[in-house]
Write a structure and sequence with these properties.
Elements (H helix, E strand, L loop, with lengths): L3 E6 L5 H10 L5 E3 L2 E6 L1 H10 L5 E10 L3 H9 L15 E6 L6 H19 L15 E6 L2 E7 L21 H9 L9 E3 L6 H10 L22 H12 L8 E5 L2 H14 L5 E5 L13 E4 L10 H15 L6 E6 L4 H5 L5 E7 L2 E8 L20
Parallel strand pairs: 5-6, 8-9, 8-11, 9-10, 11-12
Antiparallel strand pairs: 1-3, 1-4, 2-3, 4-7, 6-7, 12-14, 13-14
Length: 390
Amino acid sequence: MKTYQLMATAASGIEAITGNELKKMGYNVQVENGKAYFSGTEADIITTNLWLRTADRIKIVFGKFEAKTFDDLFEQTKALPWEQILPMDAEFPVSGKSQKSTLYSVPDCQAIVKKAIVNRLSEYYHRRTRLPESGALYPIEVAINKDEVILTIDTSGSSLFKRGYRSEKGGAPLKENMAAALVMLTNWFPDRPFYDPTCGSGTIPIEAALIGLNIAPGLKRSFPSEEWNIFEEGLWDRIRNEAKAAANFDVKLDIGGSDIDPHVIAIAKSNAEKAGVADYVTFKQLALADFTTTKEYGTIVCNPPYGERLSDQEEIEILYKEMGQVFRPMKTWSKYILTSELLFEEFYGERATKKRKLYNGRLRTDFFQYWGTRPPRIKKELDVSETKEK
């Protein structure tokens, strides 16, 4: 199989988590702002699309060069071997972005890249009329930053956060890959309790269940690259079947979520059913102030309302104070709260052990972390039968 330079894109603040995912999968990774670079074959393109929990997209890095004029952009784009991936009937829309570069007109850059690829393919396929673009989809992006051009081909299509299980959403939904990142930033292990007391449509508990059961997040969706002819016949099916077989449904999980709104609880249950984890997650209608538990050494992760509308601010302050009153006595539990409220610690009534800056979409937020006490180590009893009499 051919080796490609690949790029996993990710939201600002979680690219390091995406990089760690790739490292655990055995790849050599270089992490930059919003992206993680690695090399892989066609099989790796499939594997990472199916398994990465925190990435947005997997892209093939097809060209990298400096360009300060439109002629440079055209000639260097045309010089690339596009026919190695794009068939004659490929549909290849070109999107673009430009930052701090001489070539700042994005529409012009897109048009020039499109024209260069058309010229290259027309010459290669001996085509005198327009290319049909009636075949598989190959989304192409031209990204220019400080005059450095990166040309990529998107293998994922719609963002990887679209797992396929969330047909309905709550009022302020958290993207699935961000929810997975929040879970992966905690100290939670699948053998311990996990709870979200402001669960909305259930995304955080569902993502925790997918992690706990080792279910590949991309199993219930499709990808435009499934139609590409660079993949040997049956490769997608084989790797998808291997991913299905890797799930472990024998694991016992203690995952729950609650919300004061009965409508979103109904949505959460429906989403869990579609995700295949309904038997492993318990949802119920409950006000945060009424949450109690006798369990120990659990993990709470929640994405409460931020109070983005001015009229909500008083209610939000009350909610955060209730959080402090409910959570602070739970000394063995670790609590993780995502919010854009800079005064959260003041309302909560305690300084966080640690906080991490994250972006929920374009909104700057902080992930406030309150670490619970560690469970005592279990001392191994000495096996009498293995001791020697002295």
